Amino acid sequence: MRSPIAIATIALLLATSGAARADATSSGKFTAHSTNSSVPIGTTDAAIGSVTIPLGKRKHQLQVEVVISANIFADSLATHVDVNGVALQPSGNVGRTKCNNSYINCTTSGIFWADLDELEAAAPGTFIKQPLVITAWGSTLTGSGDARVTIRSRILRK
Amino acid sequence: MRPFIVHVSAALLLLVATEARSDSSVSGPSTAYLSSSSVVLTGSTTAVAQVTIPKGKPKRVLQVEVQATELTSVIQALGIYAVVNGVPLEPQGFGNIQVTGCDSTTHPNCTFLAHFWADLDQYETSHPGTFKKQPLVIDVMSLTDGPTATFAFTVRARMIKK
Fold first, then answer.
1. What average pLDDT does chain A have?
2. Which A-chain residues 73-112 have CB contacts (< 8 A) with chain B?
3. What's the total number of domains in chain A?
4. What is the CATH number of the domain that holds A56?
């Protein structure tokens, strides 16, 4: 049996969860960030957000963090990332978490990386001096609805 | 019946978790890190940590990570949000808070890592005089589903070129 204060706290979380706002983006030579609300997410693995760093550079690594907060009753959230169509490490649905169905706004996050020199060696002409289009993918185990998706990416010297 | 190794593992986790340690922090022109190990939450929103980067600069983005680990074993949900100079960091919306569910009945030491960011140029445009050439005071707030619980918090903040 939950205490009244617990119920009140969760009610507060639920009440504040509906505060919609405009999306936010930021980009520069080395970074690209975005937060998008009301992104559809469901049981089919699908692209849920994308940012672009203008130019891939030699001797640099790409680092990406993805956060998904799902405004739904989902049993599980998962995410993975690719750059110019090639999976970042770790690959697969690794940013996975189990959600407690008692609480909406289940959040999962994942950290991803790639060595741009290695990617370029495997697919010449695809990454160095090319735009880096970073795409986050997401899915639920059950349930569907809207999610808030945050992507943080940057390239930095190795 | 839970396997013995699970009991041993859980006991080890609890033993490690209850080892008190003093807070530590480090800061420089572009970074500020802090760890604190005895933060008590009671259900209401509580300021749990504060770090400061001495001076906000143009053409920079602020990245903040907050990691919380419950040292007790009582909560069912944990929420974290962060502000810089009083303005919520991204991601905003959903009450600006990131929430995770925990199952303290089966797993102790619920851990949650939240990521935040802010474009300082955009924040300065919307709040002139607040960020550029000003100290960046990053406050972290947290709340739980109710029961009194103790946490360790780590905050990493860095300002990087866009």
1. 85
2. 97, 99-100, 102-107, 109
3. 1
4. 2.60.120.1340
